[in-house]
Write a structure and sequence with these properties.
Alpha-Beta Plaits; alpha+beta; four-stranded antiparallel sheet; 4 helices; elongated; single chain
């Protein structure tokens, strides 16, 4: 199974997210990660979708997406040619001894403690998926109370911009 990250420029209109996600569900494809946000042009949004599959499935996803009338452009975010990031917030239950250990792990990963309570810490970390996964694995020895991941977002490297895709 291959992994594919797509950066998709779409018209910022009502229902576009429903149409894109509906395409995946109708075809039986899974979305592993999805982020959506307005670009510097309020009329255009950027969707970043992570999907897994064999070559045939991934090619079918590309072909079906470009057929949607709201889709302006699709670009694959290839490792090495793009920068991708994800954000997590994680709440860890800690006693006094564990607190110092978790703070040390947080410092090593250059994460930030964003909330302190008598029996817990909330930590924010931004990075690529490998960094996020390694951080979570180290925290598994403690009691994770809550965890949320934003999903991947990214851009291709270089000087190209959204204007390159719009008439």
């Amino acid at each position: 199974m291959k992994r594919m990250v797509l950066s998709i420029l779409v018209d910022n209109t009502a229902g576009v997210l429903s149409r894109v996600s509906g395409l995946f569900s109708r075809r039986g494809f899974n979305i592993d990660s999805l982020t959506v946000g307005e670009t510097q042009d309020p009329a255009i949004s950027r969707m970043t979708i992570l999907a897994h599959g064999d070559d045939q499935i991934l090619e079918q996803i590309r072909k079906q997406l470009i057929k949607l009338e709201d889709v302006i452009e699709i670009k694959e975010l290839v490792p090495g040619e793009s920068v991708t990031r994800e954000l997590i917030l994680v709440k860890v239950q800690v006693d006094m001894k564990e607190r110092q250990e978790v703070i040390a792990i947080t410092d090593i990963f250059r994460a930030k403690i964003v909330d302190v309570a008598p029996e817990s810490l909330m930590i924010e970390l931004t990075g690529n998926q490998d960094k996020i996964d390694a951080f979570i694995k180290l925290l598994d020895q403690y009691q994770i109370k809550e965890l949320v991941r934003t999903g991947i977002t990214g851009l291709t490297r270089g000087s190209g911009d959204i204007a390159d895709y719009i008439d």
